[in-house]
Amino acid sequence: MSTTRPYSPGSPEPSGASGASSGRQVRTLSLGGQSGVVPLARDFARQALYAWGWLPAATADQRAAAEDVLLVVSELVTNACLHAEGPETMEISCDNKVIRVEVSDRGTGQPAPRTPHRAGRPGGHGMFIVQRLCLDWGVVRTPGVAGKTVWAELGAPA
Length: 158
What we know:
5-stranded antiparallel β-sheet; single chain; alpha+beta; Heat Shock Protein 90
């Protein structure tokens, strides 16, 4: 599902919320001016998944869910690199049911799955992958502030 809502229904306030009262755990990584940001973001997300008990995975479903999170991180950070002069920050948060990934950049473009999607063509699959793997995703823009935050939410494994 694609949306332009600033955050999904029932979720806490977007970026900046402490998460303390909701039981959400939040980690933020500064990426501005860094090189090798995609592997850096994946490593950061992997460490969070270990800290939150998603890894090491006990079942194939849990392993697949963790790999989906890492793939979404890669796609969102890569899109910021390709289309928005690079990411500024990545935030990853978790409660018992949902992991939320947010990547902020200074770009003005609007991410969208390429349509029509053609599986055999190289490139252009990032947001299609995000759309297929996630419960929901969207874009947050703050009036008067350059850039945007692209967010995506994935469900916890059973």
